[in-house]
Amino acid sequence: DIVMTQSPDSLAVSLGERATINCKSSQSVLYGSNNKNYLAWYQLKPGQPPRLLIYWASTRESGVPDRFSGSGSGTDFTLTISSLQAEDVAVYYCQQYYSTPQTFGQGTKLEIK
Amino acid sequence: QVQLQESGPGLVKPSQTLSLTCTVSGDSISSGDYCWTWLRQPAGKGLEWIGRIYTSGTTNYNPSLKSRVTISVDTSKDQFSLNLSSVTAADTAVYYCVSGPLDAYYFNYWGQGTLVTVSS
Q1: A48 to chain B nearest CA, in Å?
Q2: Smallest Cβ distance to A100: which of B60, B111, B112?
Q3: Residues A26-76: pLDDT tens digits?
Q4: What is the tens place of the pLDDT at every residue in B18-63?
Q5: Pairing status of strand B11-12 against strand B114-118
Q6: How far apart (Å, rounded) are the C-alpha atoms in residues A5 and B86?
């Protein structure tokens, strides 16, 4: 199985400041034939189903605010929230869909400082 | 816009079989554009991929659960289902049915999730 490791486990950021969450995979999730990274990011809020934010490591899902961005390739990835809003308080997960079983990171809890 | 809704018992006794159904609306489950998946999240823990099914009936399961899991599809009812046998307290979790595009396996559609507790 590909192990996904996120850092940090929790993060407190002031409103309007940048938040950065990292995700590292135990093996590359870059598929050579199409040069795509099989990596997604999700946002989980209490009482709500998870929401897809980013797929192919850097493609923003329709309707996701442009303050959310994804970057990275191979084994190292980053989710960045450029200017934290109160509604961004949530737990964020990365997921690899390069191979089965698909696996998720342990989650990063984002709070307001 | 695909919508998913889980249904099934919220309480299952140890050693019994957990059975959940996901009803799909907004598009036909037979459209062939999606893959249908079950995930779960135990309290305080991360998300776990259980397995998936294609409209053709082809399935893939998590090896850690493979001996106990069956996922099936009923195209006439636009539903797919999860059966997990010989459950223990470790199977207590919120279970999600999800879907995503066939050419990739991220999940852009999620059910609300249903809590299943395994307890006598």
Answers
A1: 7
A2: B60
A3: 999 999 999 999 999 999 998 888 999 999 999 999 999 999 999 999 999
A4: 999 999 999 888 887 889 999 999 998 999 999 999 988 899 999 9
A5: parallel
A6: 30
